[in-house]
Every structure is written in C-alpha cells, then in structure tokens.
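Lecture 7 notes: from sequence to structure.
We start with the chain below.
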Amino acid sequence: MWIRSGMTYRTSFAITVFGNLLLSGLDFVGILLMFSQVDSLGGWTLPEVAFLYGLSVTAFGITDLLLGSSQVLGARIRDGSFDTLLVRPVPVLAQVGADQFPLRRFGRVIQGSLVLGWALFAVDVDWSAPKVLLVPVMLVSGAAIFGALFVAGAAFQFLAQDAAEVQSAFTYGGTTMLQRPPTLFGKDLVRGVTFVLPLAFVNWLPASYVLERPYPLDLPTWVTFMSPLVAGVCCALAGVVWRVGLRSYRSTGS
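Predicted structure tokens for the same chain:
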C-alpha cells in the first residue's frame, strides 16, 4: 500500500530518490575532500576507505529501507495508534517495518553500492576465494547487525516512548563511524564496538582481513570470519528484547 502510494506521482518519486542519493553521498564527498589534502587516512588509502564506506552504507541502507520506520514507533505509542497493530493478524514487527514504508530510501543503497563497486576495482588486493566470499557475507551480516540495533531501539521506545534520537545515535551514528578506518579511534572505543556493541563485525574486522591491514586490537585471524555468528546472536538477543518490550506495553489508558 505504501509503495503504491509513493509511486502515484512517479516523477516526484524519482526526484525524491535522486535527492536522497545525493544527500547520502555527501558523506563520501567529505571523504574525498579530506583525501584532496592527504594521501592516507589513519594509514588507509582512498580505495580502502571507500571499501569500508561502501560496505557500511550498503548494509545500513538495506536495513534502513526495511526497518527504518521503527523510529516512528514512539509516536504511535504516545498517541495510542499502536493498538491498531496489535489487532491485525500480522506480526507486529513486520507491521512496524512496513509502516509508512519509505521506498525513497533505496537511494542510499544505490549510492553505497556504487562506491563499493568502484572500491572493489580500485583497491589493491590479492583476491582469494575467502576474501571474495567475505564481501557478500559482510553485507548480509552487517545488515542483520544493524537490523538488531533497529529492533532493540524500537523495543526501548516501549519504555522511553520518545527515544528515536537515542536509537539514531547507535544506528546512523554507528554507520557513520564505520565509514572511517578503526585506526582513527582510541583502543577503548575499538574494544567497545568489538566486544560490547559488535559493530566492528559489520566491516572493520573482516575488511581488515581482506585488505591485509592490521587491526588495532591483537585478535586471532579466525575472528574475522565470525560476522555471521555475531549477527545471529545479535538478532536473537534483539528478538528477546522486542518480545519483552511488547509484553510491557500498556496502551494509553484512554
């Protein structure tokens, strides 16, 4: 229904998608401006940073397209309209993801994919079968990890009721951080996003293996292949948190 609504005025839809693509591309323009003044960023070349950027933006864009509408959940909880989702014979989380489905966000996926495609050709890598396989694994696992963050953030809104910005700090803020090399950040932060909130498994760890770059933490090589396992654990925990949040919902009382 929301897709049909958005496609009613196709010229407007195309302009909106194109505008969304351009706006999301401003982050990469900022990276290009930095590299106009330096040859490397934290020891990483432009194609290598573009590789990180493309992986992060594409994985996040897929999740933002499917679950980005969860940010309006707090407003539905506050005005009581969330009750309408509970009486329909469809999983509530699926309805939350489809609520006001913004197909225009597909522009972010396109933009990230274009940068990633260029980086794959430009980066200086001795490709092997494990490295080639890691690229789609990173995209799928990264989208799942971001999805777990969106779901957990949505569940938190049952408690806070106005926590969209808190959710954005971890989702949008997380993808922005992952667009830069891990060598730019302090080791305490790198430890936090590796062992506590495992965003590093979206691209930092597996990309370090692909590009043969040293990771700021001394970790065994096999850790770089754990993204699917980490994504599965994150999704399972997010599912538990979502069910707990959903059971705690008490409506507005009106």
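Points to note: The chain has twelve helices and no strands. Residues 16 and 174 are 25 Å apart (CA to CA).
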